[in-house]
Specification:
- This protein is mainly beta.
- The chain folds into 3 domains: 26-283, Thrombin, subunit H (Beta Barrel), CATH 2.40.10.120; 298-404, Sandwich (Immunoglobulin-like), CATH 2.60.40; 415-527, Immunoglobulin-like, CATH 2.60.40.
- The chain has helices spanning 3-24, 87-90, 146-151, 391-395, and strands at residues 38-39, 53-58, 63-68, 80-85, 101-102, 105-109, 120-131, 137-145, 169-174, 182-187, 189-190, 193-196, 199-201, 205-207, 220-223, 229-236, 252-255, 258-260, 266-270, 278-279, 282-283, 298-300, 327-331, 335-341, 357-358, 362-364, 373-382, 398-404, 415-419, 426-432, 440-447, 460-462, 482-484, 494-500, 506-513, 523-527.
- An 8-stranded antiparallel beta sheet has the order 1-10-9-15-16-19-14-11.
- This is Serine protease.
- Residues 1-22 form the signal peptide.
- It comes from Pseudomonas poae.
């Protein structure tokens, strides 16, 4: 063998050894599956491969986790810098596919426990695409270019070609609220379609990685062996009781119309399809390249249905009362098509949709049921009566879910009571709504010795009855209960009242009512003077 062949053989052997080492690399660094999440540090640059995962803040200071995408083509050509995160972490809009909208905020990279003095923060520029139905995803363009970020030492994540199979080891990176990046290990699992009212996600995955909490949603899900990005975290059932299943922050899986609760489980959205969406490092906005397009944006004339009970009551003619969708909406397209189904994934199948209907005064009022369980309404916008069906069009169909259930007793009132921190003899009472199970409350209070909770008189409503504008202006009206609203775009979920207790104990009497207006058992609380 001549010298040239020896050198070539040596280079080939080194290359094979390098490939074998890369294939055997454990990016989880020995972390046990489903074990506690560990804080990541990077003062010695040992985790530079994750310095492109960071804290994203929008104008309202919502805290999420986001990842910089490696969108370079095979020749190394790149364009704008794009980050991906959870759309429903950034906001709670349903029905609207947002695209090409200015967005204020920033993302901070190198977000490690020991590098906070060396954060690299960049302004956001454009929400290129965002939706919380079908898939939970926001693609955001930064003001900086990808090439400039790489020059400044920020490492983007490469997309995986496909979602790992069930049982494959994966990693989750999250930045919990007011904390830095954490790493957790677990295994990939397939999941059924998911409902977290008012959102419906048709293609999902799940895991039991630890440490997933508020602030961490939008964080990357990575193949443990390759460090390739295949999905983002969307939501979790951690810390939630089963009785809240399918409601906000308490997602449920749906198996052929039956809600299924999985305790202590995280859910995410696959994003490997984005591999086809970038050409020359630039996001393509046509359906031929990218299944994010074309888009349909639905705007509801009133809040979307949450859940209705199938009430076995008869009207005056002796017929069962059947709930209906009763959904008025508008679209960004001149026509729409719709259908109803028990499985949300059927919304992506063009079969059995209605003929195109003019979108002016759009209204769907088909009956729901009569079977109990989850029912889906699918809506897709079309530009004309003759428009051909595309894959992107169907993947952007809106799915709405309504669960029909036999009436049952309403749940015990969810009332939290705390003593005023200023040392006063006053208590703060907070009633938590959870439609449809706790749609409203009635309550009364007074001295414990003279307040009879069983007497139906003097109960006050929560939410409070609105004061009419034509009421006597001379009469002083005091709003005892006031809403606590974290998101001005959504109805209040909590109502609070401050009660001063002087000299004698006070009694609080509360009933909860579900959407079927059935009362709960009575809850009685006694507040003692200090």
């Amino acid at each position: 063998m001549n010298l040239t062949n020896v050198v070539a053989s040596g280079l080939l052997l080194a290359s094979l050894c390098g490939a074998l080492h890369a294939a055997n690399k454990d990016f989880g660094e020995g972390l046990a599956n489903s074990g506690p999440a560990q804080i990541l540090r990077n003062a010695r640059h040992q985790h530079d491969h994750w310095n492109g995962v960071g804290r994203i803040r929008n104008e309202s200071q919502t805290l999420c986790t986001a990842s910089l995408l490696d969108t370079r083509d095979e020749s190394g050509k790149s364009g704008p810098a794009y980050v991906v995160t959870s759309s429903h972490c950034l906001h709670r809009l349903n029905g609207a596919v947002q695209r090409d909208l200015p967005i204020k905020g920033s993302i901070s990279f190198n977000y490690f426990d020991d590098t906070l003095e060396a954060l690299k923060t960049y302004p956001l520029k454009t929400l290129r695409w965002g939706s919380s139905h079908g898939v939970d995803l926001a693609v955001i363009e930064l003001q900086a270019t990808l090439a400039s970020l790489i020059t400044e030492g920020i490492t983007p994540l490469k997309l995986a070609e496909e979602v790992p199979a069930d049982g494959v080891d994966i990693l989750a990176l999250t930045a919990p609220e007011w904390d830095t990046l954490h790493l957790a290990a677990c295994t990939q699992q397939a999941s059924r379609e998911l409902v977290e009212q008012p959102f419906v996600w048709r293609v999902t995955m799940k895991n039991q990685c630890q440490g997933v909490a508020l602030g961490g949603f939008g964080g990357p899900l990575l193949d443990r062996a390759s460090n390739r990005l295949f999905g983002i975290l969307s939501t979790s059932t951690r810390g939630q009781p089963a009785e809240r299943k399918c409601q906000r922050d308490a997602p449920c899986e749906v198996n052929n119309g039956i809600p299924v609760w999985q305790t202590e489980t995280n859910y995410g959205s696959p994003i490997t399809f984005l591999n086809q969406c970038f050409v020359g490092g630039v996001l393509q906005t046509d359906g031929e390249h990218c299944e994010l397009y074309p888009t349909t944006s639905i705007t509801f004339k009133k809040p979307a249905p949450i859940q209705q009970y199938f009430l076995k009551k008869a009207d005056g003619r002796g017929k069962d009362i059947v709930p209906r969708w009763n959904l008025a909406f508008s679209t960004n397209t001149p026509f729409y098509r719709y259908k109803t189904t028990r499985r949300a994934i059927d919304c992506e199948n063009p079969a059995l949709y209605s003929v195109p209907i003019k979108a002016a005064h759009a209204y769907v009022n088909d009956p729901i049921g009569p079977q109990t369980g989850m029912h889906m309404l699918c809506i897709v916008g079309v530009e004309s009566a003759e428009q051909r069906v595309t894959s992107g069009m169907m993947k952007n169909a809106l799915s709405l879910a309504v669960e029909l259930a036999e009436p049952g007793p309403a749940r015990t009132p969810n009332l939290s009571i705390s003593l005023d921190k200023q040392g006063l003899a006053a208590y703060t009472l907070v009633w938590h709504l959870a439609p449809p199970f706790m749609q409203r409350y009635t309550y009364k209070y007074g001295p414990a010795a003279t307040t009879d909770c069983l007497r139906p008189v003097d109960y006050l409503p929560i939410p409070p009855t609105p004061v009419k504008e034509d009421e006597d202006e001379d009469e002083e009206v005091i709003a005892l209960v006031h809403p606590l609203n974290d998101d001005p775009a959504t109805p209040p979920e909590k109502y609070a009242q401050l009660i001063s207790v002087q000299g004698t104990p006070y009694k609080i009497c509360t009933y909860a009512y579900d959407q079927a207006d059935q009362p709960s058992t009575l809850r009685v609380d006694v507040l003692k003077p200090r």
